[in-house]
Amino acid sequence: MASFRAFWNSPMGPKTTHFWGPVANWGFVAAGLADMKKPPEMISGNMTGAMCIYSALFMRFAWMVQPRNYLLFVCHASNETVQLYQFSRWARAEGWCHRIFPIQATCSLNEKELQEVVSMLVKKFVAAKQDKLQRPLKFAVGFNRRGIEETTSAKENSNDSKAFSLLDRNKCFGVVASAVNHVVEDSVVDLRSPELSVLVELLPLSGVPNGSRIVAVSVLPSNLVSTKPRLCIKALTSNTKEASLAP
């Protein structure tokens, strides 16, 4: 009873914020543990990195403050471990996705060239899988700006609306969808279970004339693409792990 009374009245006891603050912060740990079951594509690299720095700073604070707050230290040490693991999952997934992006063709970012390239790749895809495709053909379109900020694109678009109109995501989607429908008239957009996905990626290349934009285009089957939380190429890490565990 005396020990409990001493704890109750201590500077780190339940009567102070030095106790309830660490208790509340265990919510970060619980959330991180729950997120381990989610795919790495859903992890925010910026937020996870911020959480790592946050917990590292509070670990130092908990150790240096007098008297030392061991409950706060253990809480943030646990959160640091969880967040570092989540950050490693995010980094591995990001690295794989950028390395394996299969560039099947490139073209300038203008309506005519983009339609021609998409039509050519879709024709090849349909010809190779003619007997396996269902009707109507379900397809999805993905558009990504690698290393090019939305604000920069919007500024360029406003300066020269004709040259940079396809920097607008919806405009680009419309051009690609039109090209697919031109090749396969019986085709519909389906973002949940597409049979083929057209991925367009804007490349930040140096040495090209001012006002030029180059895009990489790929037409991929459903087994190489993930639709959740957004359309992207599947990471190979999970497949590699499964293969290593296979008998």
UniProtKB/TrEMBL annotation:
One of its GO terms (molecular function) is RNA binding. InterPro entries: MPC (IPR005336), THUMPD1-like (IPR040183). It holds the Pfam family MPC. Its main location: mitochondrion. It is a multi-pass membrane protein. Keywords: Membrane, Mitochondrion, Mitochondrion inner membrane, Transmembrane, Transmembrane helix, Transport. One of its GO terms (cellular component) is mitochondrial inner membrane. It is found in: Mitochondrion inner membrane. GO terms for biological process: pyruvate import into mitochondria; tRNA modification. Mediates the uptake of pyruvate into mitochondria. This is Mitochondrial pyruvate carrier.
